Structure formats: C-alpha cells, structure tokens
Amino acid sequence: MIVRLYTKKRAAKWMITAACLALTTTAAGCSSASPVEQAQVQAGIPKVKVEPIKLHSMGAPLEQIADVNASVQVGVIAQGSGTITEILKNNGDKVTKGQVIARISAGTAHISVVTAEASVSSAERALQSAQLELESNRAQLARTISGYEKQMKEAIRANNEELYNTTRDNLESSKEQLKFLESKSSVPAAKSQLETAKVSLAQAKANLEAYNITAPSSGTLAELAITVGASVTQGSKVCLVLNANQITIQAELSEDSAERVRGKKKVRVYYADQPKVGREIRVAYLSGAPSTTTRLYTLQLTADNKDAFFVPGSRVQVQLTTEEEENVLAVPTGSIVRDGNNTYVFVLKGDKAQRVQIELGRLGGMYQEILGVSAGDKLIVSGQHTLKDGEKVQTQ
First vs last Cα of the chain: how many Å apart? Predict the structure, then answer.
C-alpha cells in the first residue's frame, strides 16, 4: 500500500516536470521572433506574396490568308467618241505608258487646233505691235521732255519769264503723259488676249488627244476587242493593260486584326509550305471602315514580281504581327481584382499595397495583358482580394 502510493506520487511529479519543459520550449520558440515581427502579428498586418510584372507572350504572331491577284489590271478608257480609224497594237503586245493603241476619227478636233493656233499667232503679233507702239511713244515723249528742259535753260539765260512759264507747263504735261503712258497702252489687253488664245489652244489639243487611245501604264495588252470601223463612246473600256511585274495581295481582316496592322508600312508574306522563305511587302491600302456586307476590312499589299516569286491565283500567309509584338506586359489572371466594370491590381509600394486601375487586353493562357502598370512593378499575387488601397502589408 505504501509502495503504490509512492509510485503515484512519483508519476505525478514526472508529468509536472514534462509540462514545465514543454512550456519552457514553447516560450523559447516564441522568443526567437523579432520584436517587429511579433508586433506585426499582434497588429494583424496581412502577409502577401509578390512577383515582378514582366513581359509574357500572348502566342504566335497573328496571321491571315490572302489572295495573290493575277496581275495589276489597268483599264484603257476611250476619252472621245467616234469611229476607230486605226489600230496600232494587238493583244499580247508590250506597251509603254502613253503609247498610242488605236485612233478615233477626230472630226472637227483638227480644225479646232488649227483655228486656236492661228488665234495664238494673231495675239502674239498684236502684242508685239502694242509693245513697239509703247516703246515709240515712250521715246518720243523722252525727246520732247529733253527739248523742253533745254528751252527752260535758254529762257533762264534770256531772262524771258513768259517763255520760261510756258515751257515749264509743257514740260510738266509731258512728264505726266510719260507717267500714264503704260496705263493707256494697249499692251496689257494684248497680253490678256494672248493668254486666252494659249488656253484655247491647249484645250483644243487636249480634245484632239482624246481621239488617241493610249496606254495608261506599261505592261501587256489584253482583251482588245475593237476593230477598224467600229464605234466607241467616251468613257467606254477598250482593253486592259496587265502589268506582269507588279502583283497585288489582298486579305479581308477582322476589326481586331485590322487594328493590329494599322499604321504599318510593311508586313511579311510567305507561302505556307515555305515559312522560312518570305518577303517584306509594302502596305498599299487598309480600309478605314468595314464592308457593309462582310463587316471586314480590306488590306492590300503591292510588290514587284519581276522574278515571278509570287504565283498569280495562289494564296499566301500574311504575318500581321511579329513575335516581339506578341510579348506584352501581362499578369496572372488570378491577381486581377474586379469591382463592377472596373478592374484593378495591387502593387507593393514600400510596405503598403497600392491599388492601380488597369485596362485588360489579350488573354494568353494563365496571363492577361494589362495597361496601366510598368515592367518591374511588384505585383501582389496573394490576398489581394481582401486588401484596401494604402493598407500596410508584409511580404512572405
């Protein structure tokens, strides 16, 4: 009985000792934290994780299938009406810009040119006559003035006051005549008449030139269907000039794709089976508004094709963006905070969380493009949904 009581007392003593050791160990562990950390824990300062904002790829460059047109086709339009009197070129012939392809009966156009040329010659003679008359009158007045000046000197030497006064009046009158001689001359009117005649001649020659059907550009003649004796009307298409050295590549783009390429001067074009063999092609046109039927934007590219690299009628790939352009500032989608129609992220500024309103862009996997932040900003990626703007935080 005494032995059992002694054993129970000893066991209780060991239990008390173990409890004291545990408390001592826990107290020692707590005392290892710094006073600042203990204060933060006690103050309830949230812990957050951060990562730097940097560039992420949104995927492969944006591409679009496009058609290579057969060639640049320029319609040859008749500028006058009449009967075909002569055909100088045939289908398949090479032509240069301005070269005459066919002629139309000119009618009275030749007479108009001859009449206008005669009017110009007549106006030139009238102007020459008026100029000679002006020079003659000017010389005559100059001699008269010189004579009056001599008479005044003689009147002064002879002390003849009456002669002096008369001569002085005549001298002043002659000088006034010389002053207004130009305005009274027929030279200005003759010049105006000559200019009018020259304009009429130019118009007559232009009308006559309209009876020559000429090539608007250099290339190969095609679809020429007129014959001598056939009638044509002004504005009708006579044939085509195909420029085999020039090609046009056309694609239809969505609004997003059009915005991605707008403002660019060149884009890369290649065949799908030869992706490494491509060319930088000039952007000739990008429509500012979509088609009313397809709601797509037309993109046209032009390029020299003297080496026949592009095959008319084929299809090519147009690379609208580059790999570098697909690398944008993006953040994990889970770090974005949404509040109604507004979107935010929290960045670490010192030891505080700063809320920054952002604009969302493209989505690429787990990351989304954003605007409103800078590369290198410390993005808070945990606990951001419960943070307040300017709230003090501690990083894990």
Answer: 60
Say whether both 98 and 232 belong to one domain.
yes
Residues contacting 248, CB < 8 A, separation 6+: 68, 69, 72, 284, 300, 301, 302
- Could you give the CA distance from residue 271 to residue 309 in angstroms, rounded to a whole number? 10
Mean pLDDT of the chain: 83
Say how far apart CA 321 and CA 58 lie, in whole Å.
11
**Among the three residues 209, 230, 263, which one is the final residue of a domain in this structure?**
209
**Residues of the chain above pLDDT 70, percent:** 88
Asked, for residue 144, whether it belongs to a domain, the answer is: yes
Residue with tokens 């009966």: 105
268-293 residue pLDDT tens: 999 999 888 889 999 999 999 999 99
Residue ranges of alpha helices (H) inside the chain are 2-31, 35-43, 109-158, 161-179, 181-184, 187-209, 255-261, 323-326
CA distances from 48 to 32, 53, 336, 394, 395 (A): 22, 15, 15, 6, 5
Statement: residue 10 has pLDDT above 60: no
**Across the strands, what pairs with 391?**
353
Q: Does residue 306 sit in the same domain as residue 159?
A: no
For residue 23, is it within any domain? no
Residue 258, token pair as written in the block: 């059009």
Range of the domain at 253: 63-70+243-322
Whole-angstrom distance, CA of residue 11 vs CA of residue 17 = 10
CB atoms within 10 A of CB 373: 15
DSSP secondary structure letter of residue 309: -
Q: Domain for residue 216, yes or no?
A: yes
Query: CA-to-CA distance for 387 and 355, rounded, in angstroms?
Result: 9
Stretch 70-98: mean pLDDT, rounded? Answer: 86
Instruction: Report the number of distinct structural domains present in the chain.
Output: 4
Residue 273 sits in a domain whose CATH number is 2.40.30.170
